[in-house]
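Q: You know discrete backbone vocabularies at least as well as I do. I have my own habits and do not want them to colour yours. No explanation is needed for now; the record alone will do.
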Amino acid sequence: MTARVAAIQRHPVKSHGCEGLAAVDLTTGAGVPWDRAWAVAHEAARVAPGRWAPCANFSRGAKAPELMAITARFDEATGRLVLRHPSRPDLDFRPDDPVEQAWFLDWVAPLCPPDRARPVAIHAIDRGQPQGLTDTDYPSVSLINLASGRALGQAMGIELSPLRWRANLWLDGVAAWDERGWTGRRLRIGAATLEVVEPIVRCLATAANPGTGQRDADTLGALRALWGEAVFGLYARVLTGGRITDGAQVEILA
């Protein structure tokens, strides 16, 4: 089986919903357009306007598992974002509009545990910057190997949805765990070339079922039992921009 892209995903608001894309145009030195364009700052956050900040400043699935069940649809032309959750009515709003940001904060509040820092504002990096509010302090694209996800699920005796890993590119046709040896290597994916920078260290968000928002799997314990570390997936930099489509071929260059 030829290695290929099985899905393309972006997450307009960090930890608050993903959406599938048929194609994405990557730019050299930048992340996925509109991926983690916003994040939700909580009441203990220390963030500078328009600047990247570490994930500890934001509401996320590791602390509020129900957030993992949000799905999103962003309209780039209008700037409107639709969020859906199984226990909440659909929300259609503009994340850059101060009035409509208040709608969002009211909407998301019931999904956040009362003993955690409350969401208070939507934070964004200045437009035109090459990176989003990812967990890396450099512009990154995240990758997962679906075969590794299936192997992990088999070891745990359950089926794990790839949505648990919140990755941008889902790769299929690669042997399970082969990607553990890719750090420092270059990949051609569609018309783009990426360099793998480092593995992704995982958090408790992956324990939550993306269909229900409830924790139901000890993903971190299972990863540590297999490998001695809770890592799954890879962060990569875009060396050469280009279009990647769903089903695009993946080639390891060096």
Summary: The chain has two domains: 4-30+135-252, 38-124.
